[in-house]
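QA checklist item 7 of 12: single-chain prediction sanity check.
[x] sequence parsed
[x] length recorded as 442
[x] structure emitted
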Amino acid sequence: MKAGFISLGCAKNLVDTEVMLGILQDNGIELTPDPAEAEIIIVNTCAFIQSAKEESITTVLNMAEYKETGCCRSLIIAGCLGERYHQELLDDMPEADAIIGTGAWNRIMEAVRETLAGNRIVLAGENEIVYDAKTPRILTTPAYTAYVKIAEGCDHRCAFCAIPLIRGRFRSRPMDDIKREVTRLAAEGVREIILVAQDSTYYGKDIYGEPSLARLLQELVKIEKIEWLRVLYCYPKNFTDELITTIAQEPKICKYVDLPLQHAHNSILKSMRRPDTQEEVVTLLEKIRARIPNVAVRSTFIVGFPGETDAQYQTLRRFLIEQRFEKVGIFTYSQEEGTPAASMPRQVPEDVVQERYHDLMSVQCKISEELNQGLEGKELDVLVEGRDEEQPNLAFGRSYREAPGVDGQIFIEGDAASRPGDIVRVRIVQGFTYDAVGELVE
């Protein structure tokens, strides 16, 4: 019996995919990358914004074709789309044999057995379970990098976000359990650990009574063979002085701060139900930059939130120009049903949203190019990820300044010997908007 798996969406969803793969393999099911030969096809979906939902639906329908052209006997929709719209999917998509939500990944074999027996089922509405170090897991990332989910769910109620509706309340994993998983991954050859949660700086508040990300990092840096520790999704509210000090002082921790801010105008931040003001964020950014030398700060912003005026947008625009973030993701507002923002008055016309999006992208592109050009002549350690197929002496990888999948790459000229997973010293010779070109330092 063979199963094929497609994982969509964020790194947190990818971890769910990897534990489901582990459970399937532990139950004797062979995994295949070719959906044409899979008797079971599972699509782990995303439902964060409209474009992600559309991609998920399209992928499911594409996989359904293998019921006619391939070996597929069971098509299972998993993940966020399955959690949020399980009944609608069951009613409107006869191609799907089972729907399992974000809290039912541990019941994947139940879904497989029931569907192969000819039954259509829904397993959703359960959002308490979190995987642990004993849970079977098969990495789909390169062997040198792994994501580790330190918590599940979210206690924030941002007006635009459906994640709390989908993934439930915030649940931290115990620190010792995370240490066991990272220790095992290190023994298997992983060199870069990337910690993820919906709000990583909130980690531990539910089980230890206070934000405990700094303490967790202080424990993880002790694990031998781990060379890079990277943290994603750090909300500003609980970005403590202790955390800043820990990142600054520990050589293994990448000097990379992922700080989703979403906007810079206080009225919009209040409407978004964000707990921070622009003034508080600026104070935090000043502390981070002053105390963590050469830090790379990444953030994300939303344009076109309901009620956003041109003057408020201009405040956001000026904020990006003043702060000069190393990395920025910009999103257009997506009207998600069930969220407070969806029913807010003064929804911004789509043409205005698009105009602001492209304008802000052009602003950030210029900043990013200038910052990357400022790296010229500097030396960085680069984690090699691959090699150009047509130019054997051209390798590529990432420094501490780039997270996989969301940031650019560094291309290494004159490198014929390094292998994926090696960390090499590179001198930057040319910076571009997203990427940079360097040469090996002998």
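[x] summary fact logged: The longest helix spans residues 350-373.
[ ] second reviewer sign-off
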